[in-house]
Amino acid sequence: MHAARSTLTFAASTALAGLAVLLLAVTVVAAPLVSGADEPPSITDRDTLVIGVNDDRPGLAMRAGDGTLKGFDIDVATYVAGQLDVAPKDVTFKPLSSDQREKALSDGKVDMVIATYSITPERKAKVTFAGPYYVAHQDILVRQGDGSIRGVRDLRGRRLCQVSGSNSWRRVTEERRVPAALVSAASYADCVKALAGGRLDAVSTDDLILAGYAAAPGSRVTVVNAPFSDERYGIGLRKGDVSGCRAVNRILTGMYQNGAAETLLDQWFATSGLNIAITVPQFEGCA
Questions:
Q1: CA 270, CA 59: separation in Å to the nearest integer?
Q2: Do 126 and 250 belong to one domain?
Q3: Residue 239 DSSP one-character state
Q4: What contacts 149, CB < 8 A, 6 or more positions away?
Q5: Are residues 109 and 172 in the same domain?
Q6: Residues 158 and 239 in one domain
Q7: Phi, psi angles (nearest 5°) of residue 120
Q8: Using CA atoms, how far apart are residues 61 and 71, in angstroms rounded to an integer?
Q9: pLDDT of 66-99, one tens digit each?
Q10: Is 264 buried (19+), middle (13-18) or exposed (0-12) by CB count in 10 A?
Q11: 62 and 173 co-located in one domain
């Protein structure tokens, strides 16, 4: 009798132990699903992408006559999307103003931003940045044939464009204390028209922006190639999309190593006079 009872007790204990192991296994499998629910959605999981861009930057992102957007930023966006297995027909470009970018990302209205979006400590608190996909520099635009301006110090007493809402002029007159004669304008497009028409002596902002204007047919302006700041153009992602950031960094590395970046830069800026960088930029850490 004791032997039979012991056998039954052993069998019951074994069954309970097996059930405990099964419950533990279910718990372990289920746990990541619960914690993952709090993680932000990643661009690596998307079949379609909405990408925030500029729509008024020649050579970078500008509307063509047929209404489509064309330029270096648009081509980089298309390249990155393609490497993420998102076809061009499944990419939507959404024009954004500078002050809309962080909110558009946090609200989920765009999946990424590629729009001469300089990486700064203040922005990194709200956005996860991949890249940079290009390191631009503040430079100077002058009329073709004007050899009197070779660097920022030569802007002393010269008529320099001051665009409403831009801080580029401050890097000349305040940070470097060069007493240029500031002339107000509503946009860089207006600055370039005034420069070509002889109403200004120089325009100063990011070199890729200047190069886009200089490369336009019949522009009559050229880039000096006297850089005096770094502007690290990043690809903005929703805060916390670390896997998406790492994926984009791998794509950007390949874009430079396989020559695609050089091809695109030459396509849009070769005639501008700008000395174009074609080496892989040093990336920010994904966070």
A1: 11
A2: yes
A3: T
A4: 140, 142, 155, 158, 201, 202, 224
A5: no
A6: no
A7: -135, 155
A8: 5
A9: 999 999 999 999 999 999 999 999 999 999 988 8
A10: buried
A11: no
Q: How many residues does the chain have?
A: 287
pLDDT at 166: 85
Range of the domain at 94: 49-135+232-270
CA distance 203 to 223: 10
Order of all β-strands in the sheet with 49-53: 91-95, 49-53, 112-118, 231-238, 127-136
If pLDDT is split at 50, 70 and 90, which confidence band does 8 have? Answer: very low
Rounded Cα–Cα distance for residues 286 and 248 (Å): 10
Peptide bond into 132 cis (omega under 30): yes
The string of pLDDT tens digits covering residues 99-138 is: 899 999 999 999 999 999 999 999 999 999 999 999 999 9
Sheet containing strand 69-70, edge to edge, reads 56-57, 61-63, 69-70
Q: How far apart are the two ends of the chain, measured CA to CA in Å? A: 67
Sign of CA dihedral 269, 271, 272, 275: positive
Positive or negative CA dihedral for 81, 85, 88, 90? negative
CATH of the domain at 265: 3.40.190.10
Phi, psi of 185, rounded to the nearest 5 degrees: -150, 155
**Three-state SS at 31:** helix
H-run or E-run covering 148: none
* Cα angle: 270, vertex 98, 186; to 5 degrees: 75
Statement to judge: residues 202 and 220 lie in one domain:
yes
